[in-house]
């Protein structure tokens, strides 16, 4: 995890170290991130919408994902 000092956005990397496809979960609450967040998949270059609570993805074997979490000011 890394933080953009200019706006507080968080960059989250998730990894699957197993030999088969598996779910990966990031719970913002565990990192003292409260409220709703807009999530963008940086490698796929697409918005994933607003989440409240855990972010769940399925990653391929030995795969990874990189996401930007921006505080949602609309919620």
Description:
The chain has 75 residues and is mainly β. It has one domain (2-71): Golgi alpha-mannosidase II (Immunoglobulin-like, Sandwich), CATH 2.60.40. It is 0% helix and 52% strand. The protein is built from no helices and seven strands. It has strands at residues 2-3, 10-15, 22-26, 36-41, 46-52, 55-59, 64-71. The relative contact order is 0.35. The model has no long low-confidence stretch (mean pLDDT 94).
Q: Would you kindly provide a brief summary of this structure?
A:
The protein is mostly beta strands and 75 residues long.
What is the topology, as strand order, of the major beta sheet?
Answer: 1-2-7-4-5
> What portion of residues is helical?
under 10%
Would you identify the CATH H-level superfamily? Golgi alpha-mannosidase II
Our estimate of the beta-strand percent is: over 45%
CATH topology title: Immunoglobulin-like
Taking Cα atoms only, what radius of gyration do you get, to the nearest Å? Answer: 12 Å
**Series of secondary-structure elements, N-terminal to C-terminal:** EEEEEEE
CATH architecture: Sandwich
Provide the number of structural domains: 1
Q: Helix count, per DSSP?
A: 0
Query: What coarse outline follows from CA principal-axis ratios?
Result: globular
Number of strands: 7
N- to C-terminal separation?
24 Å
Structural class: mainly beta
- Mean pLDDT, to the nearest integer, reads 94
Biggest beta-sheet profile: 5 strands, antiparallel
CATH class: Mainly Beta
Unreliably modeled segments: none
């Amino acid at each position: 995890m890394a933080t953009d000092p200019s706006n507080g956005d968080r960059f989250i990397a998730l990894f699957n170290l197993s030999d088969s496809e598996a779910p990966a979960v990031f719970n913002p609450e565990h990192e003292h991130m409260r409220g709703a967040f807009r999530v963008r998949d940086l490698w796929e270059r697409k918005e994933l919408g607003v989440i409240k609570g855990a972010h769940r993805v399925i990653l391929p074997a030995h795969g990874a994902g990189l996401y930007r979490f921006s505080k949602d000011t609309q919620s």
